[in-house]
Amino acid sequence: MYVAVKGGERAIENAHAWLAEERRGDTDIAELSVAQIREQLSLAVNRVMAEGSLYDPDLAALAIKQARGDLIEAIFLIRAYRTTLPRFGASEPVDTGKMTCDRRISATFKDLPGGQVLGPTFDYTHRLLDFKLAADGEVPQAPTRSGITAEDVPHVSEFLNREGLIEGAPHDDTPPPDLTREPLEMPADRALRLQALTRADEGFTLGLAYSTQRGYARNHAFVGELRIGAVPVEMEIPELGFAIEVGEVTVTECETVNQFKGSKTEPPQFTRGYGLVFGQTERKAISMALVDRALRWEELGEDFVGAPAQDAEFVLYHADNIQATGFLEHIKLPHYVDFQSELELVRKLRREAETGHVQEAAE
Amino acid sequence: MKDTVDEINPRKAWMSVLAKASEGRVAQLLDAAIARPEFAWLRAPEIGSTMVRARAGATGAPFNLGEVTITRCALTLDTGEVGHAYIKGRNKVDAQAAALVDALMQTDKAEVLRAQVIDPLEAEQAAAKAARAAKAAATKVDFFTMVRGED
């Protein structure tokens, strides 16, 4: 229960002024520009865009600056800004088969058309602190390799699909539900689950995905394919009646290949989990694919073994870090009246207990 | 009868090229090519969003991935041609330049603008893509099998 209380305005104003000063830090140190954050902390920017659910690197960088690097606070700022934007429409579904890949790897096939392209990855680095970065920012130019004609980069699942060894993802044009317009309600179909997962907290999604690997709703995932790159966004222009590309967005896509014993109606075959996230966000995309697969137990005729990652209500209602932080942090706001009544109750109970003891002793 | 597909496709192509241009580039090329004509706003530049959709498993049922900021505007030249712009991001000046070029591409200025705005933009965009692809290609793994000792 909240009660309107007057007072504290000056304290609040002064707190905010101090916050601004602390945000700036030591003024002998050069101030960070938004462009510097956008260019040099780009993976933080990507996370804020993915979980803020708004693709705009400049805004995400500004939010990170304003939030002093607190990424959940930055995501909060982006979500709040997003609600002020008029919605012009929806894009055609992006075709990730047309992605210009910076990175594309498969853990299931060594020699696949298009090859294993590592891209700008942390993989295979030694995870030793690089003190050269503390000294100067000079970097050598990345090597290039020319003479390679642009190859088609087909999805790995297509090869398995040809043999019928993996479940298909048949074309479908059902308009998807949108949890930014309608409250998230159970049961949630896969489209709604994927929307919730792609904007879900990275840490929460990672933890759930890890739990499936450790044996809670085990479905043994291989990364069939992981690709990062730019895809064109096509949108129908209502005034013109045809679609144009309005720009490109960078996304990370992960398709897992999972074991499946088969069911009464389906022969044994591989099944799929899917992750697609704004930006270069590999950990999140793999996590999303694992959790997506775990949540599909019902449509695949598997048993519910009581694992958290199988429980759509548990996963989807706790995955959003803005909802979670809002409810979590509200308990630090004044609850004076609530607490007064609790205090009264405890005093009363103690009085009753004491009188009881006295009575017992007398008897 | 005029073939509507022919009329639509080139416009779709140039509008897409204009939308993908880097900040300030369309205006720069436009102003270098011709003097800007008079125009009237049909819709002044406004910032909003579009919901980006994707497909489950890349090919299945669509789902909502998240929004992207979009700037749009529409204008009409004194000679009546209407130009539209829908571009990613929040740059009203860029949207205005893109809509102007879209309108002018429907006039007798089309040839000049094709040569001095659209073609250079397309070439720049292709070059940027190729440069990135060349870096990606350099990280492509060449597997080789070690010759094994037993035999």
Automatic annotation (TrEMBL), chain A:
<keyword id="KW-0808">Transferase</keyword>
<protein>
    <submittedName>
        <fullName>Alpha-D-ribose 1-methylphosphonate 5-triphosphate synthase subunit PhnI</fullName>
        <ecNumber>2.7.8.37</ecNumber>
    </submittedName>
</protein>
<dbReference type="InterPro" id="IPR008773">
    <property type="entry name" value="PhnI"/>
</dbReference>
<dbReference type="GO" id="GO:0019634">
    <property type="term" value="P:organic phosphonate metabolic process"/>
</dbReference>
<dbReference type="Pfam" id="PF05861">
    <property type="entry name" value="PhnI"/>
</dbReference>
<dbReference type="GO" id="GO:0061693">
    <property type="term" value="F:alpha-D-ribose 1-methylphosphonate 5-triphosphate synthase activity"/>
</dbReference>
Automatic annotation (TrEMBL), chain B:
<dbReference type="InterPro" id="IPR009609">
    <property type="entry name" value="Phosphonate_metab_PhnG"/>
</dbReference>
<dbReference type="Pfam" id="PF06754">
    <property type="entry name" value="PhnG"/>
</dbReference>
<keyword id="KW-0808">Transferase</keyword>
<dbReference type="GO" id="GO:0015716">
    <property type="term" value="P:organic phosphonate transport"/>
</dbReference>
<protein>
    <submittedName>
        <fullName>Alpha-D-ribose 1-methylphosphonate 5-triphosphate synthase subunit PhnG</fullName>
        <ecNumber>2.7.8.37</ecNumber>
    </submittedName>
</protein>
<dbReference type="GO" id="GO:0061693">
    <property type="term" value="F:alpha-D-ribose 1-methylphosphonate 5-triphosphate synthase activity"/>
</dbReference>
<dbReference type="GO" id="GO:0019634">
    <property type="term" value="P:organic phosphonate metabolic process"/>
</dbReference>
